[in-house]
Amino acid sequence: xxxxxxxxxxxxxxxxxxxxxxxxxxxxxxxxxxxxxxxxxxxxxxxxxxxxxxxxxxxxxxxxxxxxxxxxxxxxxxxxxxxxxxxxxxxxxxxxxxxxxxxxxxxxxxxxxxxxxxxxxxxxxxxxxxxxxxxxxxxxxxxxxxxxxxxxxxxxxxxxxxxxxxxxxxxxxxxxxxxxxxxxxxxxxxxxxxxxxxxxxxxxxxxxxxxxxxxxxxxxxxxxxxxxxxxxxxxxxxxxxxxxxxxxxxxxxxxxx
Amino acid sequence: xxxxxxxxxxxxxxxxxxxxxxxxxxxxxxxxxxxxxxxxxxxxxxxxxxxxxxxxxxxxxxxxxxxxxxxxxxxxxxxxxxxxxxxxxxxxxxxxxxxxxxxxxxxxxxxxxxxxxxxxxxxxxxxxxxxxxxxxxxxxxxxxxxxxxxxxxxxxxxxxxxxxxxxxxxxxxxxxxxxxxxxxxxxxxxxxxxxxxxxxxxxxxxxxxxxxxxxxxxxxxxxxxxxxxxxxxxxxxxxxxxxxxxxxxxxxxxxxx
DNA sequence: CCCTTTTCACCTAGGTGGTAAGAT
DNA sequence: ATCTTACCACCTAGGTGAAAAGGG
Lengths: 257, 257
Fold this sequence. Notes:
Two copies of one chain form a homodimer. By secondary structure, the first copy, chain A, is mostly beta strands. Chain A has a single domain (10-44, 64-108, 131-250), classed as Immunoglobulin-like (Sandwich), CATH 2.60.40. Chain A has three helices and 19 strands. At the A-B interface, strand 4, strand 5 and strand 14 of A face strand 4, strand 5 and strand 14 of B. Chains A, B: One of its GO terms (molecular function) is DNA-binding transcription factor activity, RNA polymerase II-specific. Chains A, B: Keywords: DNA-binding, Nucleus, Transcription, Transcription regulation.
């Protein structure tokens, strides 16, 4: 549903104070969230394929460093309303740690010693599969550089943003702290909350003075996830295979189309 | 090389008067031009594939009407210089008829009557293959609606445009007069000259008054072509197959990589 | 007859999780 | 023992000309 109000809309510029965002594919997000959403993060770029004659550009663009870094699935996409059709806006996303813990997936006690892992109070015990579950396993790694992802159509008029669903399908995740492709850097085995920001492009000369009034932020709790380098919860794997068209090769039968 | 000056740079706004454009892949364009470049134009959209559950959007964007309409090959791409790095520019292309004739590909005289076809004076006789060649065959069809193609990154700063090669690889050609996808409409069997325009986005309130000063146009003669629905000159077909990566499936041996 | 449209196999390009090997 | 990486088969998505079919 429509949701996500930032910390009080008071004092906001009139160009953003009525902005609203509805999360798309909400039921799919909730289905994942009930199991404990996991998102793959990877480090390596795609192995540079053999280029005839050492060709490094094609179609006029430098060949993008082919990247195996992963998209999010489900894709974060919203339907916007309440923008000024004629004003310019920038849309962007960032990711904030949900807590200061790192996690592990297991049985709680791997061997002889006392069980140091505990289910985080913020993690419902349903985030489990058979006898395995997510267990807190110490303090979080130092936060990775807090990158943001600008929607590639930014800036654009409010009318353009409201015309159709806005999709962040170009957003990619990595665990490479030295990533130089502008991707979002996350720590594996840590939990994150995606955030979405609508920023009014203020044409006033001293617009910096009003920066705090010119944006509005949205947070959808059902989109929180655990960053992993390989899926841990087998139910998550199966739901990804069932719902992501690119994973169709791993489907067995012909259930719900 | 650097080329294409419009009709006199005098009276141009200082933001465009020093603009210069170098055609990329010039030797490939010239190789095609020596044979008489042909570009495919098509009418139909791609047959709408079966969508599970009637899905009409994916990744948040409405599924683009899948289109079989064809790109240009070679791709029109230029390297820009002389722009104001901090000013905004719009880049666009259009296509102007090279003459008022329609053409046919053949032997000049198909049967008993007198040969009405003549090689156009503007068509070098080398635009021929074996005994076939391009022959003028009457007056041109009424010109199709004169559409323009805006580079999708428009508008952007001069610095952005000059940073790397600007490619019009998204540009598509059609012979469908009723096309509603914004593609470039051309008449088959007619000759065209692509034009490239750099437009300074004038921030002045009464910028319309200066519209004629705020753009600069470039025309590269080696990019002229005949619009066709199927290739006529077999040498053109072979050069397309040899140089377009998407046609690799039709290559025979392993010549010049 | 000449031109156009449709359909097809074969590519490029790149997004999936599986799997086995590697790292700590 | 647990987490990470590299490589793979198998998909989606769509850009090619060939060849056959259609149309005036």
